[in-house]
Design brief:
The protein is mostly helical and 88 residues long. It has three helices and no strands.
Amino acid sequence: MEATALQSRYSSLDAARLGKAFVNSFRSQLRMPADNLMHSIRRLLESHLEQQQRKLVESALENALVVQASVQEDANDESPGEADQAAA
């Protein structure tokens, strides 16, 4: 029974590691397009735009900043519970 519990724990930890690896891979694939989007939006804001167009581009910039921040979050940051589980 103890062996089954231990095996279950190892399987759970492996699944968590795989999930984290997938998220890290996904973030790295999105990082460059997100940076390119930010650059393009900033260049667009430098051009002459009507007020309504400028508001739309500024809104796009705000949303792109959220995406960029999400993509650049450090995936290596662990919550205290995860660090305790990994050490056990």
